[in-house]
Amino acid sequence: METAGSVRAPVPKPHWLNAELTYKCPLHCVFCYNPIDYAKFGPELSTDDWIRVLQQGRELGLVQLGLSGGEPLMRDDLEIIVAEAGRLGYYTNLITSGIGLTEKRIAAFKEGGLNHIQLSFQDSTREMNDWLSSTKTFELKKRAAELIQKYDYPMVFNCVMHRHNLDHTKEILEMAETLGAEYVELANTQFYAWAMKNRDQLMPTRDQLQRAEAVTNAFRERVGDKMKIYFVHPDYYETRPKACMNGWGSIFLNVAADGVALPCHEARMLPGIEFPNVRDHDLKWIWNESPAFGTYRGDTWMQEPCRSCPEKEKDFGGCRCQAFMLTGDATNADPVCDLSPHHHLITEQVEKAQRPQLPANTKPIVFRDDRNSRALAAGEQPPVTTA
Amino acid sequence: MATPKRVPFDHDTPIAIAKYYRFQWEPAQECHVLLFPEGMVQLPGSGGEIFKRIDGARSLNAIVAELEQAYPEAGSLRADVVDFLEVAHGNGWIRTSAGA
Ligand code: SF4
Ligand code: SF4
Prior knowledge:
The structure holds two protein chains of two kinds.
Chain A: E1 16-20, H1 47-60, E2 64-68, H2 78-88, E3 91-96, H3 103-112, E4 116-121, H4 128-133, H5 135-150, E5 156-161, H6 169-178, E6 183-188, H7 193-197, H8 199-202, H9 206-223, E7 228-232, E8 252-255, E9 261-262, H10 283-288, H11 291-294, H12 312-315, H13 320-327, H14 344-353, H15 370-377
Parallel strand pairs in A: 1-2, 1-8, 2-3, 3-4, 4-5, 5-6, 6-7
Antiparallel strand pairs in A: 8-9
Chain B: E1 15-17, E2 22-26, E3 31-36, E4 39-43, H1 46-52, H2 60-70, H3 78-90, E5 94-96
Antiparallel strand pairs in B: 1-5, 2-3, 3-4
Bound molecules: iron/sulfur cluster (2 copies).
C-alpha cells in the first residue's frame, strides 16, 4: 500500500493483454480455469467496451493480445473485435476449441488481421471415448484444422493432460499428426478453479508422467522437425514454483468477461483486494495506479523464506493464488517450493495420487457448467451433472 | 522456448523474417519488438537496427556493409551481427530464402 512520502519503484511496462470475452462455452471441461462461480458474475462487456479497452491497451503498450473465454466464438461480434485489434497493431491470438468456427468467420478473422489460432482439445473426460475414437469430435477438429491451414495459420494444438488421458499420450500425438499440427503443447493440468475442485480425480501418478514423457520423446524422435512438441510438467511434481505471470502486475493484464481487470486469470479468488472494472477506470489507471495491481508487485510483501531468498528474482515466490489456496495466505511462498514450510501440502497430494485406483470415496468429478457454477456460487456442493 | 542455439547459414543468401513473425516499433516500450504466436521479444539497440534491415532481399553480408557504413565509428561489426543472427536463426526468428 502507498503511504505518503514512500518511494515508489517504477511500474513495469506490460505487453500482454488477455481478453476473456465470454464465460459462455459449449464445453464442460473438468479442468477449466474459469472461476467456479462465474455464473454469478455481472453482464458481459459490450462491443464498445472491448473496443475502448483495446485502444487504451495500445496506449499502455500492450501488444500481444489473447482472445479467450469461455469460447470466444460464442461472441458474434468477434469479427469486429479482431478487426479493431488488427487496426491497432496487436499481434492477435485466438484460443478456441474450434466449435463454431466456419469458413465465413475465419475468412473475416484473416481479413481483420488475426495472427494466430490455438486449437484446443477439450472435454476429454466426459467424452473420453468419443474424443479418442469417435468420428464426431475428430471430424469437428479436422474441419477446424483444415480451415486453419487453408487460411495459412500455423497449426497449433493444445491439450490439457491429466490422470484420465496421460495414458493416451500416443493416440493424442498421432491425432495431432494426422491433423497436420506443427506445434503441440501437452500441458499438464494446473490446479486452479475447476481443476482444483477435481484435483483428486485429475492428479496423475508419477508412473503415468514418466510413461507419457517417454512416449513423447520417442514420438519427437520419429517426427523430427515436422512437429514441435512441448510437454509441460505439473508443478506439483516440481521443487521450485513457476515464475507465475512473470511476477504480479509485471507484464500481463487480464480483462474478464464482466470487465474486471486482473493480474492473472485466477486472481479474483484472493480476498481483500478490490479489483477494478474497465467500466469504471481506464487501463492506464488500472495498471499504474490501482491498489489491486500494486498489491504483490516487487518483493516488499514477501515473507520468509522468500524475502531473503536469492531465487526471488527468478520465480517471484511462485503463484499468489496457489499460496492462498493451499496455505490461506497469499503472501506465503508458493508451497510447490521445497523451501516452503508448507511444501508437505503438495507432497501429500502427490503421494495420495500414487494409488493406482482412486478410492471409492473420492469425490465425484464436477463438470464445468452453469448449473454447477450456480451451486458453487451459492456455497452448495454441486450436483453431478451427466451429459 | 528452448535454449537458444546458434545455427550458421550462408552469408550471401538473402534472409527474411520467419513466417508468422512480425517485427515492429513499439512507442510505449521505446523499443523494437518481434512478435510471434503467444510470444514477444524486445530487440533494443543493435538488435533492432539489424532486424530493420531484414527484408527477404538483403543478405548478412549486405547488412554488415550497411551497418558499418551507417556507424563508421563502431569499427568492424561483422562478429556481432553474425553472433546475433545465428542465434536468431537458431531461435527460428529468421529464415534464409533457400528455406530453413
Ligand atoms: S477450458 Fe473447456 S469449459 Fe473451460 S472455457 Fe475452455 S473449452 Fe470451455
Ligand atoms: S523460497 Fe520463495 S523465492 Fe525462494 S525459491 Fe522458494 S518460492 Fe522462490
